[in-house]
Design goal:
elongated; 166 residues; mainly alpha; 0% strand
């Protein structure tokens, strides 16, 4: 039983973090994302006709990068705990306890290169005196609101037909 707990400790901690990823997105970006059982990204501001739009949902690569940094950050805390002599379940608990700090770091790294105004608090970019980054998180000329990454697909239509061939 001890061996099973040792092998499953980190995957369970990582699964918990994955379940919390969308609520974390909302806490960081004030965007409306919810837990998978509460609507996921359906309420995210990325579905609004005008911006600003959540950087993780507007640009899936940024969201994936943040998720990877979070996962590797948790892995680092877990490995450090194991090397310090903690049991696997204790090290996994430490990786979950470190999740808020890891999330803020990963979120900031993915937020800084965007022009999105909010990070943890409304208008964080203006409050901190930071200029907008080069990655746009709003409506761009020639791009319909339906063309964003998280827009639901219309049943039966190929992707090019859904968005006017774009």
């Amino acid at each position: 039983m001890e061996r099973i707990a040792a092998r499953l400790s980190f995957p369970v901690a990582l699964a918990i973090a994955a379940l919390l990823l969308l609520p974390i997105c909302d806490r960081l970006h004030l965007c409306g994302c919810r837990a998978p059982w509460a609507g996921s990204a359906a309420a995210c501001n990325v579905h609004a006709a005008t911006g600003p739009h959540c950087p993780w949902c507007e640009h899936p690569a940024l969201g994936a990068l943040a998720a990877l940094v979070i996962g590797f950050g948790q892995w680092g805390v877990f490995r450090r705990g194991c090397r310090a002599g903690a049991s696997s379940p204790a090290a996994a608990g430490a990786s979950l306890a470190a999740l808020p700090a890891v999330v803020v770091l990963a979120g900031a790294l993915a937020w800084l290169p965007t022009d999105y105004p909010h990070f943890v608090v409304p208008q964080a970019r203006a409050r901190l005196g930071l200029p907008p980054g080069p990655i746009a998180c709003g409506e761009r000329p020639g791009r319909s609101a339906a063309a964003r990454c998280c827009a639901p697909r219309q049943a039966g239509l190929p992707k090019t037909a859904q968005h006017g061939g774009r």
